[in-house]
Amino acid sequence: MKTHKARGLTRLSIRLAACAILVAAPEGYGISLDRDRVILTEEFVGNVFPSFNHAPAITQAADGSLIVAWYGGYQMGKPDTSIWLARNTGTGWTEPIEIDNGQREDGEIYATWDPVLLTVRDGTIYLFYKISSIQDDIRGYSNWWGAVKVSADDGVNWSDRKWLPEGPQPYFKKYTTFSGPTRNQPLELPDGTLLIGSHTESPSWKVHFELVDGPDYTTGYHLVGPIGSGAIQPAFIVHSPDYSRLQIICRPSSSSGNPPKTAFSCDMGQTWTALQDLEGINTCAGLTAATLKSGWHVLAFNPECSRTPLSVALSKDGINWYTLLPELDMCDSLSVDYPSTIEAYDGKIHLVYAYANHGRIKHVVLDTDYLVNAAIMSDYGLAGDFDRDQDVDFFDYAILSRYWQEVNCACKWWCGGADIDRGGCVDFFDLAAFAANWLGQDN
User: Fold this and answer.
1) 3-state SS, one letter per residue, for 74-89
2) What is the domain partition of the chain in residue ranges?
3) How far lies 106's CA from each of 134, 135, 178, in Å?
4) C-alpha to C-alpha distance for 358 and 409, rounded to whole angstroms
5) pTM for the full model?
6) CATH homologous superfamily for the domain 381-443
7) What is the DSSP letter of 279?
8) Comparing 9-378 with 381-443, is the CATH topology the same?
9) Could you check whether the bond before residue 215 is cis, i.e. omega within 30 degrees of 0?
10) Hey, how many other C-beta atoms are within 10 angstroms of the C-beta on 302?
């Protein structure tokens, strides 16, 4: 491993001087968010970076230290793009070290891509990433091989690279190996299985999953799917403590700005519904999501098809989202994109992302309680107003009747909203909540 030397910082520092974090209250919610309360920390992950830095990932080690990895070099897809890593034990970030430079067995150096970090229950840290199989090819995402390194000492030392197992044909024909997680963190299921959200991009965008036998998550891979086309980079949110009810939110393929794609599982990821639009949010860039200890879910994304600003939304059910921070961060017209998020052991939300046209990697810590309280204040409007016309009437009653005594609602968009208490079925508890607002209006 080697410490990176400074490259191209003079031009970048001029740009960065003009950039600042902005926090705006979401329109229509009537909530004023105090910037000093929301953002607890804002900093760069170290001081010395390559000229190009992209797709950061973050995890927290068992000892409490933070670890961030990304890929960087001269330009995306070029052979000098390596996997870099920095640690913070509470006294500041270490300077980035090179974890893998992409050199293959033939001695040639190839581009690296999209690291993902995961700390599992026994404290082991997995660093998943990809390496192109064709040299100097900007389309490395259509031919990469999945790789992994492991740390047993909180990210201080790392194992040699290990290729992921060969994937079943013909699905992985252009990739050879399983991809591993392609943007967002996997889930360690209660039975010790690892559930990986993944995708391929050649010949078209398709979402699939990889179930990995424990306790060694470098072998024993099994393919689930693909479940649909037109999306990549699935991010998990969890709807039940036993992980039986899961949801993914995916980056859509349209370059014009589309709703993200979503799907549901009611059997720990063994089977999934078809991909469908998640209305209310438009994006076409990389996004990230996570479930908080409180049961709320957080989503970070770029609105529409711009790579700036970076926005943060919260949701209780994974369907209705409040964009509480529409402008968490922006840097003039420069990109602020490809976020990754975790909830740390202290309950705070940590976000890392590429900053100022991939000039640096930025780290922001958010006050989780303050954001969740703002989301609760926003609420979803009038309980029982399923058609969202600001009253509870016979049109809403028709929707309740349609789904009456329906089960497995977590896999059915909460049964059109009729599962008001999100209990998984439409029953007398939902009827009571509906009756309490009968003929009421949301002013």
Assistant:
1) CCCCCCCCEEEEEEEC
2) 9-378, 381-443
3) 12, 11, 21
4) 41
5) 0.87
6) Dockerin domain (1.10.1330.10)
7) T
8) no
9) yes
10) 25
CA 411, 319, 298, 55 torsion: positive or negative? positive
Residues belonging to the chain: 443
Span 129-159, pLDDT tens digits: 999 998 777 778 889 999 999 999 999 999 9
Pairing relationship of beta strands 194-200 and 145-151 according to DSSP bridges: unpaired
- pLDDT 10s digits, 246-273: 999 999 987 656 899 999 999 999 999 9
Contact 272, 263 (CB under 8 A): yes
Q: Which of the four pLDDT bands, split at 50, 70 and 90, describes residue 9? A: very low
CB of 8 within 8 A of CB of 52? Answer: no
Token representation of residue 79: 């052979």
Residue type for position 109 = I
pLDDT at 378: 67
In whole angstroms, give the CA distance from residue 158 to residue 165. Answer: 20
Tell me the two tokens of residue 404: 């009456």
CATH 2.120.10.10 is held by the domain 9-378: yes
Taking the C-alpha atoms of residue 441 and residue 126, their distance in angstroms, rounded to an integer, is 51
171 or 411: which carries more pLDDT confidence? 171
